[in-house]
Amino acid sequence: MRDDGADGADGAGKARGTGAARPGAWDPEVPDPLDDDDFPTEREKITLADVAGMEKVKERINAAFLMPMRNEELRKAFSKSLRGGLLLYGPPGCGKTYIARAIAGEMGARFLYVSVADILDGKSSRNVQALFRQARQYSPCVVFMDELDAMGGRRGNMASWLRPVVTQLLTELDSVEDDNEGVFFLAATNHPWDIDSALKRPGRLDRMLFVPPPDAEARASIVGMELKERPSSDIDARKIAKHTDGFSGADISHLVESAAERALLESARAGRVRPIVMDDFRAVLGELRPSTGPWMETARNMVEFGSADGAYDELAAYIRSNRSRR
Length: 326
Ligand SMILES: Nc1ncnc2c1ncn2[C@@H]1O[C@H](COP(=O)(O)OP(=O)(O)O)[C@@H](O)[C@H]1O
Ligand SMILES: [Mg+2]
Fold this sequence. Notes:
- By secondary structure, this protein is of the alpha/beta class.
- It is built from 14 helices and five strands.
- The protein has three domains: 6-210, P-loop containing nucleotide triphosphate hydrolases (Rossmann fold, 3-Layer(aba) Sandwich); 216-285, Orthogonal Bundle (Helicase, Ruva Protein, domain 3); 293-325, no CATH class.
- It has helices spanning 8-18, 55-70, 72-77, 96-107, 116-119, 124-138, 149-152, 163-179, 216-227, 237-242, 249-270, 278-285, 293-305, 313-325, and strands at 85-89, 111-115, 141-146, 183-189, 207-210.
- It has a five-stranded parallel β-sheet.
- The structure holds adenosine-5'-diphosphate (ADP) and magnesium ion.
- Residues 51-54, 92-98, 214, 218, 222, 225, 249-250, 253 line the site of adenosine-5'-diphosphate.
């Protein structure tokens, strides 16, 4: 909080001196994003190899970003078809952010990550502008905007202060199409149907990629990954996978954590390490519910009663094949 005491005027003057104070600004100490490179290019340790299952998703990402990034000739040859962007969508907790981090791990500095909620402040439009300016300097480069739903509502019923932000984003995307070879746009949302349709036009977020709940194989490997650094004995990951249909990746992580907690508690009581066993999973499985149900319900309605422009074909196919499996 700013101090309104005797030194208030002094403080404001100082802030003005640094050029950081803006009307309504919260904290004069926060640096202006236009001053330096500060959409940090994260140093991620995970790569796509750490993403369990999701073969189709990985294939698309490879073809859309990684291959052309690594091969300049290919990038030039296909530059036209590589323009525009890719929107990852799917139920919460199923790996959109995780996959983005993995792509960052694959690409190093050529990946700019920003969570939309983080750039929504008094100068959001300038943040968007700065983000793309930085991306053009780093080209070839991927700009990733996570949790796009935070600004993605239809402009018609969007808060008035948000509209210029979306407009700025459209401007930047179009300029990417005009004169910015090698800037690729990637975004993620749980609510693709709420994204302003202007954002989905050609050259913008014109391709969609469904990130489904993990299938049995992916669930088994997430269990394996989560157990790697924990003491366990005689775990049948396939069996756990069989009993966790509809669980998101995050649900599975939580499941393993709960099982670990149970073993830990008992270890503490006994005074020696008792590894995690199947019984722990049995006990906690009785208490946990899969979280993807409500999202799939909404998705089903959207596919059945929403616009039939083919945007959700992948999702529709997934819903169909899951229904016939049951
Ligand atoms: N395919 C996967 N492989 C490994 N871990 C996964 C996978 N999908 C999800 N997870 C785990 O679930 C967590 C939540 O996923 P996250 O990417 O945050 O979901 P989303 O962004 O789609 O809401 C991740 O941090 C990761 O630990
Ligand atoms: Mg996320």
